[in-house]
Design a protein that fits this description.
The protein has 82 residues and is an all-alpha fold. It has three helices and no strands. α2 runs antiparallel to α3.
Length: 82
C-alpha cells in the first residue's frame, strides 16, 4: 500500500509543478512583444516536433503522449493570444 501512496504523492507533486510552470509561462508571455510572437510560435512548434519525435520512439504510455499534445496545443494558443 505504501507504494501506491508514494506514487500518488509523486503525481500530486508533478501536478503542482506543472501548474507553477503554467503560471510562469503565462507571465512570461505577457512580456513578449506582439511583433515577436510569430517567431516564438515557430520556434515552439519546431521544438515540440523534436520532442514529439523523441516521445514516439520512447517507451512511454499513450496517456503521456496525450498530455503532451494537449499541453502543446494549449501553449501554442497562449503564445498567440497572450
Amino acid at each position: 500500500m505504501r507504494t501506491l501512496q508514494d506514487a500518488t504523492e509523486m503525481i500530486c507533486d508533478l501536478k503542482g509543478s506543472v501548474i507553477a510552470l503554467d503560471a510562469l509561462i503565462g507571465a512570461l508571455l505577457h512580456h513578449v512583444p506582439e511583433s515577436q510572437r510569430d517567431a516564438l510560435a515557430s520556434t515552439f512548434e519546431a521544438n515540440a516536433e523534436i520532442a514529439r519525435t523523441v516521445l514516439l520512439h520512447a517507451s512511454i504510455s499513450d496517456q503521456t503522449l496525450k498530455g503532451f499534445e494537449a499541453d502543446v496545443g494549449r501553449y501554442g494558443t497562449l503564445i498567440r493570444t497572450a
